[in-house]
Design brief:
This protein is elongated. β1 and β2 form a beta hairpin. It is α+β, with helices and mostly antiparallel strands. Helices cover 50% and strands 15% of the residues. The termini are far apart.
Length: 130
Amino acid sequence: MPTVDRRSFNGFSLSTGDVKQIALSFNYCPQRVIDPLILLEIWIYLPNYTLSYNYYIGRVRPSTYEDLANYAASLEQKVEDLSAQIDQLKQKIADLQAQLKNKEAQIANLTSLLSAARLDNDRLAARLRK
């Protein structure tokens, strides 16, 4: 458990429409994987009662520099793998296009043979009728 670092601010008063902003910064050290939970407590004192609000302002992502480097390396490997898959798909597309051209040539050849056979059939049918 990280140690709790309490910070308090001097009080101030607001009139209608006034805005007060106070900033606090902290250092996050990924080498030590410190994951601070930030709790903001707001107290508003009114004449008859007091309002209090608690806000948890998230957590810092618990990643070390080594974790980030490993993640970057895994992304680089994924890019390489996807690039290899793209190259394989391009080759497969080229092969399929070549097969398509070959089939189109075969269809054209068979179409011309079929036309010649029909023409011969029509000539033979005409001779047999005479």
